[in-house]
């Protein structure tokens, strides 16, 4: 018997000590001894002092037995040898009487290559756009993916508002680690799915199997852990899984929409463990990052979208990557179904459907419509070339309000209001500002129109 074989068996015994009841370990597993490993038949032979030991282990701890042996020896056969102790003076052991039980150990512990990680293969670091709002999280995530066996930054707790890219990042970490270490068992699971699995295991009386499965994971990624804030039993079970993984230097990555201390209803001991590693905040993407994300997605989907359209989408999506993707997906559908070009008119139509919130950002058309209604003129007349005062004032005021309440550049505002140039927009804004300083009645008119728009002064980012 080689030293390597003995070392592997010692690893199995350590697993048993950590994963079975202490009293049962002393009563059963402590009496199991390694006899030999037969290479020709790929068989591991274990000695027990009585058939009662092997039968009791197989009855109560078959899953643990299979898991431990598979994780250390791989796909092999297990054979028991019953050692009978003779009642003579020297109490010599007799190996003549043997009870054999052959077990295929691969059944409940599949190789990592056959293990379904539940990761999204499209969410990788190659498709993740770095910006100020995610720079720290991305940098640490890459380091963890490339060095999963280290204990630094474990657990990694990522938090931030919905739509900021948290799920994409943790999937990227898992996919990169899987690429570099294919033998690792990596699992992505939402907190909701974990809770459903736990509930089903409880109903079927298989909670031990459920826990032991999760204890075999090398990198566990749990998304939306705030879902557990009122699930006491789920928290208690995850606490034990967390402790086992942490103690054995396995990677734990947690995702939430709030910090650990803000998880009201979460067990304090679990909150403490969530906080003991790295807390990494992800913020909403700023305007420039939204533009970069849009450009990447548009290029990937092989779409042709003008730059000013991209800038407009970025300005109205309120820093939500999900909303950005929703708009682009809708544009792609419209362009394919209706065989039309993607322009500002189409985008404004799509945005009203895809980015629907209580404070949906104003469009130039919204502002033009409100101004025209107040002055009782038509949008086409305002966009025309007439220099009549009853049209010039509404035209200039529309440009002024569009600049004030949207992120659309002056060049684009001019194009949307009669294809006018940048200098015309600037001149119009200056004229309205002068008018506001000298005409109280006009101030009241503008305030009335602004009130009808129901916008907030701080809406512009």
Question: How would you sum up this structure, described in words?
Answer:
With 461 residues, the protein is α/β, with parallel strands linked by helices. Helix content is 52%, strand content 10%. The chain is built from 20 helices and 11 strands. A 5-stranded parallel sheet has the order 8-9-10-7-11, sandwiched between helices. Helix 5 packs parallel to helix 6, helix 7 packs antiparallel against helix 8 and helix 15 runs antiparallel to helix 17. The longest helix is centred in the N-terminal third of the chain and has 17 residues. The radius of gyration is 33 Å and the shape is elongated.
Notable traits:
461 residues; alpha/beta; five-stranded parallel β-sheet; four-stranded mixed β-sheet; 10% strand; disordered C terminus
